[in-house]
User: What shape does this take?
Amino acid sequence: MALTAGLVEARLAALRERVAAAARRSGREPEAITLVGVSKRKPAEAVAAAVCAGLRDVGESYVQEAAVKLVRVAELLGEEGPPAPRYHFVGGLQRNKARQAARLFQVVESVDRLPLARELSRAAQAEGRSLEVLLQVDLAGESRKGGATAGELPRLLEACADLPGLAVVGLMALPPANPDPEASRPYFQRLRELRDSLAGRAPGPGLRELSMGMSTDFEVAIEEGATWVRVGTALFGPREG
Assistant: This one.
């Protein structure tokens, strides 16, 4: 199926309805949930269509891809179009890409080690800006996905809190892939518990955000307290390449 602007708009509307329903089931307002449309391997035209339809947050996983795509999205939106979205980096980040990431993104969701945080801090200061960051937590022992362990998290949070140019605003996790959304629920519960246990240790805005849940399980994530959900396939279709 061709990815047309009309299809993207229809999918976004359907997703918003599902987000709102999940929020209400958990006694929350739909406005408390931010939908992050993850557009890796998708064309700039699809991103621009989603932004024109009202998407305000866009996630990318590859710095080099984003460097080209974000320029094209800005061209497509033009001066008379909607403002640029808030861009989230949601993939694994290498230290040598930190400077570029600090230039392109407003949020980095995958900070999982102190050397990376320090590099992002230096890069943000060099760019004259502040980055919102989330600490990625490995709750399932899947080291290939990245993430600090629950035991490492308090020390990482304490160290990051002192880094200029960074504002630690929450936690992120990637549960093991499973076609059953309910299989993710224990991991979402655990991340919420970790956030709540550490909330008093974070300065400034505190750990207000929980980024958890993707296309297959975002409704369960919302029921368990997610404030950001990262949805790619359900919005833009299956990833290509």
In short: The radius of gyration is 17 Å.
